[in-house]
Amino acid sequence: MKYLEVFFTAFKLGCTSFGGPIAHLSYFHDEYVTKKKWISAEAYADLVALCQFLPGPASSQVGMGIGLSRAGIFGAILSWIGFTLPSAIILILFGLGMSEAKDMTNKNWLHGLKVVAVAVVAQAILGMGKKLCPDKERITIAIITSVILLFFSSALFQVLVLVGAGFFGVFFLKSLPNLPEEPLHKGNKNISLLFLILFFVLLFFLPFLREIYPDQKIKLFDSFYRAGALVFGGGHVVLPLLQAEVVPSGWVNNDLFLAGYGMSNAIPGPLFAFSGYLGAISEIEPNAWSGAIICLVAAFLPSFLLIIGVLPFWENLKKNPNIRKSMSGINAAVVGILLAALYQPVWTNAVFSGKDFALVASGFLLLEYWKIPSWAVVLVTVIVSLFLY
């Protein structure tokens, strides 16, 4: 009964949680803390802080952590499935439709999806920038990061700038306030250690395996696992990592990539479900459903391994001021990654005229200042684009 309750509560949230990761956390608080009282407000704040520090989709990790506290490891799995399933099915079906209608890639409605993605990413940058870059030091980290990545856009440089920002944070940023002290789920530390080891083994072993044994499914799994393992800051930041993996390699057409990203902002649930769409339309895997499942599991697996692996050790780690300062620097670099992504590939593949810019500006106005839900802005932009072009 407890397992079913965990699954259906997460499924309900997956069907109704519009608005991106920050909005998801508000929905979660209302459901898990206020209504069901599965977790205290202090423990919830602690869990959110931890998931902001870890790579991967923060809202999905919070859901996994609550499922873990409620019903163990199987509860974490059910919580992830429930929250991800609605958006994954919608995006996979959308991908199948796009695959059957590739001659439609130049239609006006598709261009509208690409244009509205610019407004969504711009709003994400502004919101995260206000929160993660409140002083000149962290703003400087963000700008330097974006400049570096605009000149050197490989995944390797993304990792290097995150590491560099972490070291900068230790030596030059101010110490952050202590986090709440209420303990979370106390798991078995030996099992948690195995999960952490598996996380790093897959991260470093899969790139070698794909070279030694060049199976298409291994290549797909490695690319999406690495993207999920190296993303700090949530779903929006996975965009440049996935774009660098699937577009230059020819696995996914760039127009279809941006169309799917725009669609993912019009539906509830985690933005990481976008990986299922990419798997469904990928040229590397002929079976769309098989490709979608591989990409979904690979993209979310690092988050699952980390949240289970880190939770039992978090109480001691969070007390270390250097850990907190390092993560502060890394979070600022995340804003820089988003800023670079706003220009390339989002802006450069969507904004070609004054009409395009007008749609972007209008969408940003509705999102940021009129607080219109993102799904409604996407729908309005697509409708307008049908008549505008």
Automatic annotation (TrEMBL):
Phosphoprotein as UniProt keyword: no
Any Gene Ontology CC annotation: plasma membrane
Domain of life: Bacteria
Transmembrane regions: 73-97, 109-129, 141-171, 191-212, 224-242, 288-311, 332-352, 372-388
Mode of membrane association: Multi-pass membrane protein
Keywords on record: Cell membrane, Membrane, Transmembrane, Transmembrane helix
Main location: membrane
UniProt cross-references to Pfam families, sorted A to Z: Chromate_transp
UniProt-annotated location(s): Cell membrane
InterPro entries found in the cross-reference section: Chr_Tranpt_l_chain (IPR014047), Chromate_transpt (IPR003370)
Keyword field contains Cell membrane: yes
Any one GO molecular-function label of the UniProt entry: chromate transmembrane transporter activity
Family: Belongs to the chromate ion transporter (CHR) (TC 2.A.51) family.
Protein name in the entry: Chromate efflux transporter
Organism: Leptospira kanakyensis
